[in-house]
Amino acid sequence: MYGWLSSALLLALWWGLAAMLQDRALPAPPAVLAALRSELAAGALLPALAATLGRVVAAFLLAMILGSALGYAMGRWRAAGAVADPWVTLLLNIPALVVILLAYIWFGQTEAAAIGAVALAKLPNVVVVVREGARALDPALDEVARLYRFGPLMRLREVVLPQLAPFLAAAARSGLAIVWKVVLVVELLGRPSGVGFELHLRFQLFDVAGLLAYSLAFAGVMLLVEAVALRPAEKRARAWRHAAA
Amino acid sequence: MPPLELRIRRKAQPRAEGPPLEVLRDVALDFPTGSVTAVLGPSGCGKTTLLRILTGLDTAFEGSVHHRPRRIGMVFQEPRLLPWRSLADNLRMVAAAAGLPPPRPEALLERVGLEGWATRLPGELSLGMARRAALARALAVQPELLVLDEPFASLDSESAGRIRALLAELLAEGRTTTVLVTHALEDAAELAGRVAVLTARPGTLSALLDVPPAARREPAVLRAALVQA
C-alpha cells in the first residue's frame, strides 16, 4: 500500500517538475511513454532489450559459477584462501570501468571481451559472499556425509549446496543489480547493439525522452527477472527453515 | 569375518595454547562380529573420541584399526539429520550411498515409533524423536557395525524406552557388531554382552569383562563385578 503511494508520489513529483521547467532536459512522463511507443513501433526496442538481457545472463552465470567455485575453495582450504586473497582484494578495489577499458584494449571490442569484463567486475563480490558461506558449513554434517560414504556429487547436492543456498541467493541478488548496470557501460563503450548502445545514441542526440524510455524499459525487465526467477528460487531454498517452529 | 581390531597407542588433541592434550593411551580392543560392547567411563575420558577413531572419522592418532566393515551406522549425540530433507529422504539417501536398493523408510521409522512421520522435516521433531530417526537412518544402511554415542542421554522416557527395546531386539539377533558409549551402568547391564571401562583422561582401558547373566535383572551384580576387576 505505502509502496504504491510512494511510487505515485515519485511520478507526481517528476510530472510536476517537468511541467514547471518546460525543458528538453526533463521530459514529462507522457513524452517518455510516446518515445517508448515509437521505439517499439520502429522495431528497435525489443532487439536492444534482448541483446542486453543476453549479455546480462551470460555475464551473470559466468560470474556466479566461477565465483562460487573459487569462493568455496577459498572458504574450505586455508591455502587456497591465502593464495587467492590478495587477488580478490585487488579485484574488489578496481573500478568496473577500468576492467572494461583494459579488456577492450587487450582483447579488442568483442562480445567475449565485453561479457568477460562484466563477469570479472562482478566475480570478487560473489567470491567474498560464497567464501563466508563455505566457512560457515557445519562440520557435523560433513562427518555424516563421510560416515555414510556420500559420493562427491551427493555431498555437493545434499550437504553443501543447501547450506550455501542463502549465500548464493544473496550473491545472486546483489549480483544481478551490479551486472546489468555494468553491461550498459560495456555496451556504451564498445558494442554495436543493446540498451547501452541506444543510450549512447540518445545521449549524443540529446534525446532525453528516448534515454529515459530505454532505461526504464530495461529496469522493468530486470525487476521482472528478479520477481519470476530469483525470488521464487530463493523461497524454495529457504522452505525447510520454516519447519522448525 | 575376523574381529574388528582397535589399537590406540596414543591420541592427543592439539590445543590453541600449550602442549597437545592427551586424550587416550594404550587402548587395545577386539570387537568380534555380532558382539555388543558398552564403553563406560567418566566424562571427558575420550569415549566419543574412541568411537570416532573406530568409525574412521578421526584418523589423527597413533595406532591402527583393522577389519573395519564398510557399512557403518552411527547415532551421534546430536541427531545430525539433514534438516532440508524429509525423514524418508534422509533414510533413502544413506542407503543409496551404501549402494543398497531403496529401503522402505516407513517400515524403518515404524520400528523406532515414528510411523506417519516419513514426509516430515527433522526440524519438526523433538530431540528424542530426532534421535530415534537417527537410529532408523543408521539401520537403513544395514550396518555391519553400529555405533551409539550416549543414545539415552537427555531423552524423555518414552524415547529412551523405545530405543532401549529396539536395541535389545536388534542385539538379540546377534548379526550387528555394536559399540555403545554410556554413562549408565544399567544400560550396559541390560544391553551389552561385555563392558569396557576407561579411566579418567588420558583414557586407558582399566577393565574389560563379560556381563554376568545375573546382571541383566540386577545391575548391582555388574557393579560388584567391576569393583572386583
Automatic annotation (TrEMBL), chain A:
Q: What are the recorded Gene Ontology BP terms? A: transmembrane transport
Protein's membrane topology: Multi-pass membrane protein
Concerning SUPFAM superfamilies, the annotation shows:
MetI-like
Ranges for domain ABC transmembrane type-1: 49-229
Q: Where in the cell is it found?
A: Cell membrane
Q: Where are the transmembrane segments?
A: 44-66, 87-107, 209-230
Q: Give the source's domain of life in one word.
A: Bacteria
| One Gene Ontology cellular component annotation held by this UniProt entry | plasma membrane
Record's keyword annotation contains Repeat: no
Major site of localization recorded for this protein: membrane
Keyword terms, alphabetized? Cell membrane, Membrane, Transmembrane, Transmembrane helix, Transport
Its family remark reads: Belongs to the binding-protein-dependent transport system permease family.
Protein name (Swiss-Prot/TrEMBL): ABC transporter permease subunit
Record organism: Teichococcus oryzae
UniProtKB/TrEMBL annotation, chain B:
Name of protein: ATP-binding cassette domain-containing protein
Offer an example of a GO molecular function term for this protein.
ATP hydrolysis activity
Ranges for the ABC transporter domain? 8-221
Say which species the protein is native to. Answer: Teichococcus oryzae
Q: Which UniProt keywords apply?
A: ATP-binding, Nucleotide-binding, Transport
Family, according to the entry, reads as follows:
Belongs to the ABC transporter superfamily.
* Recorded superkingdom: Bacteria
SUPFAM superfamilies (UniProt xref): P-loop containing nucleoside triphosphate hydrolases
**Gene3D superfamilies attached to this UniProt entry:** P-loop containing nucleotide triphosphate hydrolases
- Determine if Transport is one of this entry's keywords: yes
